[in-house]
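Input record (one chain):
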Amino acid sequence: MSLSNTSIKGPFRSRHGMILGVLAGLSEFFGISRWILRAIAIALGLFLAFWPVILIYFLAAFIMPLNPYQATRY
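The corresponding structure, as predicted from the sequence alone:
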């Protein structure tokens, strides 16, 4: 069974994210820019206090599966 043909759907953590890949994975899933999601996360952190936003981020990193590795053939 190939990992690229899995039937799992939903957001994944990106392997190319800055910290844990949560925002990068969400941006790939929703098709929007990573910088927009990062700006939203920073704005929420400023207005709601950083601890809830950091807690939600790490909970999402714990819950969201890592993007399956897709080997390229040469």
